Amino acid sequence: MEPAKTVNVSELRRMREAGEKIACLTCYDASFALIQDRAGVDMILVGDSLGMVIHGGNTTTPVTVADIAYHSRCVAPHLKRSFLVADLPFLSYATLERALDSSLRLMQEGGAKMVKLEGGREQASIVEYLSVRGVPVCAHLGLRPQFVHKMGAFKVQGRDEAAAEEMLHDAEVLAKAGADLLLLECIPAELGRRITEASPVPVIGIGAGHDVDGQILVLHDILNISPMVTLGRKPRFVKNYMTDGADIETAIRNYVAEVKSGAYPAPEHCFLK
C-alpha cells in the first residue's frame, strides 16, 4: 500500500480542490500525537485551548508563548504525516516585531509548520509581514477566545447581515495579505458556506457548519473529558466520540471518518441565523 502523503500547505490546497474534507484536532502531548497521526488526522493544532483543558483556566488569555512552544515541542517529533499548527497566544503578536519573534520561537523551538492568530482585517499587516518572511499563517475569525473579555462572552458571531458582511470582508483581506488558511469559529452555517465559496484558501470550521473545507474540534471535547463537557457546558458543535468508540484511537478514527464522509457535523451541531 502506498504510504500516506505528508500533509503540508500544498497538500491542504490539493485536498480542498479535490473536495476532500480536512480532519483536524487539537493536541498537546506526545502520547496523543502518536495516536492522532496514526489515526489519520490531517492537521493538528497546539491551541491556546490548553489554558482551559490542560491548565484548568476559565479563558485562554494566561497562556504564554513559552507554554505553546513547550507543548508543540512535545507533539512535533511524533508526527510522521499530520501538519502541525501552533497558536500565537494573547498579545504575542501585538506588534510586527513581537509577531515575528513569537513565530520564530514556535517554529524553531516548537517545531510548528504554521502559526495561527486571531483577528480580522486589522491583522492584515501582521499576516503580510509574517507571510513574506516565510511564516505560513492561519487567520482565525468569528468567535475569538482571546477577545472574550472584549466580547463579554463566548457566543455565536456574524448573526446579522452587517456582521456577516464584515466577516466576509475580513476573510478576503486576510487571504490577500497572505493567510494560507482561514479558521471560522461559532458562526451561522450559511455564513460559513459564503466565506468558503469566496475564499481562495482552505477554510476550517469549528461550529461553522457543514460547507467549510474541514473541521476542527478540541481533542478533550470529543473524548468527553474536557472541563466544559464534564461540567455540563458542552458547546453545540461538540460530539462525544467515546460513545461508540471502544478506545481512544477508535474514537479519533471515527471522528476522522465522519469528517471525511460529511457525516459530521450533522444539523444538530450547526448554528442557524
Automatic annotation (TrEMBL):
Keywords: Cytoplasm, Magnesium, Metal-binding, Methyltransferase, Pantothenate biosynthesis, Transferase. The active site is at residue 185. One of its GO terms (biological process) is methylation. Its main location: cytoplasm. It is an enzyme of class 2 (transferase). Its cofactor is Mg(2+). Binds 1 Mg(2+) ion per subunit. GO terms for cellular component: cytoplasm. InterPro entries: Pantoate_hydroxy_MeTrfase, Pyrv/PenolPyrv_kinase-like_dom, Pyrv_kinase-like_dom_sf. Pathway: Cofactor biosynthesis; (R)-pantothenate biosynthesis; (R)-pantoate from 3-methyl-2-oxobutanoate: step 1/2. Catalyzes the reversible reaction in which hydroxymethyl group from 5,10-methylenetetrahydrofolate is transferred onto alpha-ketoisovalerate to form ketopantoate. This is 3-methyl-2-oxobutanoate hydroxymethyltransferase. It comes from Solimonas fluminis. The gene is panB.
